Design the sequence.
């Protein structure tokens, strides 16, 4: 009789303990999943496109470098992606033209490159932020010769590597677009020492950022295009409204 009673009670107690555990964890999970009306949720991932304009004072000339970048933002803190950059004008060089060319031949350097970038947000709010983007690029460089008769020739193409750390801030004008500026340094790698010195230097950054994921959500949700929704910091003391 004792054995049969124990045999009946033990499974029942175990079943009761499991049912109590399930009942105590269910409200906690429910609270964790319940949206907080005072907290602005950040999407886990969103697509970000950037028009990245860079300027460098090289050999007495302010050279513009036009770039476009496309990447993914992770939890509003880390961005990774790819970009392409082209010079808007040539870089004057101190290297002489080949002896086979006539005198008074003007020489300049041109380069273009692809870049993989990573960007970490140091501080910020939904409206503004300060981040540290770093790029590693691979491309090509060549010399272009402007002859006195107006014709042009170019040197054989050489490959380049470069690294560009920088510090950049931006502010959102609207939910889906922001403007920013910053500064950094470009270091050329694996070139001869003269070309590395001439093409390496400080950079000034100007950018326009399009948050394509937010733009898609605005279009899908039929929200106002110029809305400031989600960009204002809410008062932390404000209690959630009862619904």
Sequence:
């Amino acid at each position: 009789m004792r054995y049969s009673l124990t045999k009946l009670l033990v499974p029942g107690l175990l079943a009761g303990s499991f049912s109590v555990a399930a009942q105590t964890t269910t409200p906690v999970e429910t609270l964790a999943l319940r949206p907080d009306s005072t907290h602005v949720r950040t999407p886990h991932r969103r697509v970000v496109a950037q028009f990245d304009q860079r300027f460098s004072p090289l050999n007495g000339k302010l050279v513009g470098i036009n770039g476009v970048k496309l990447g993914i933002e992770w939890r509003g803190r880390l961005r990774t992606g790819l970009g392409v950059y082209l010079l808007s004008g040539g870089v004057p060089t101190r290297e002489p033209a080949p002896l086979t060319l006539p005198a008074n031949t003007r020489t300049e350097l041109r380069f273009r490159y692809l870049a993989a970038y990573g960007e970490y947000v140091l501080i910020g709010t939904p409206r503004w932020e300060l981040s540290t983007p770093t790029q590693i690029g691979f491309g090509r460089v060549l010399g272009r010769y402007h002859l006195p008769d107006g014709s042009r020739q170019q040197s054989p193409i050489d490959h380049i590597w470069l690294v560009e750390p920088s510090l950049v801030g931006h502010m959102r004008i609207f939910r889906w677009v922001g403007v920013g500026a910053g500064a950094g340094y470009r270091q050329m790698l694996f070139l001869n020492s003269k070309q590395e010195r001439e093409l390496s230097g400080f950079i000034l950054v100007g950018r326009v950022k399009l948050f394509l994921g937010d733009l898609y959500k605005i279009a899908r949700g039929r929200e106002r295009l110029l809305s400031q929704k989600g960009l204002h910091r809410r008062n932390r003391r404000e209690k959630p409204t009862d619904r």
